[in-house]
């Protein structure tokens, strides 16, 4: 499981949507639509599943260790 992330269209910064998903499951998820409150713009950004990705905390740690 990882955090579902989107990119802020205004600042380009990654934003955690607060959703949790398994990357392989998320990739097969039918297109859906959601809104996330952006901490940078302080407004709701509307996004589609294709714009989002799952960030796995373990993947990064493994990379840095190697
Ligand atoms: Zn934003």
Notes on the structure:
The chain has 66 residues and is an alpha+beta fold. It has one domain. 21% of the residues lie in helices and 41% in strands. The strands form 2 sheets. A 3-stranded antiparallel sheet has the order 2-1-5. A two-stranded antiparallel sheet has the order 3-4. The longest helix has 9 residues, at 57-65. The protein starts with a strand and ends with a helix. The structure holds zinc ion. Zinc ion (ZN) is lined by residues 8, 10-11, 38, 40-41, 45.
Brief overview:
It is built from 2 helices and 5 strands.
Run of helices and strands: EEHEEEH
Compute the number of helices: 2
Overall geometry: globular
Number of domains: 1
Bound molecules: zinc ion
**Widest sheet, order of strands:** 2-1-5
The averaged pLDDT comes out at 87
Biggest pleated sheet: 3 strands, antiparallel
Number of strands: 5
The value of Rg in angstroms is 13 Å
Strand residue percentage: 35-45%
Which class of secondary structure composition applies to the elements? alpha+beta
Helix and strand topology:
Layout: E1 2-7, E2 14-21, H1 23-27, E3 33-37, E4 44-48, E5 53-55, H2 57-65
Antiparallel strand pairs: 1-2, 1-5, 3-4
Bound molecules: zinc ion.
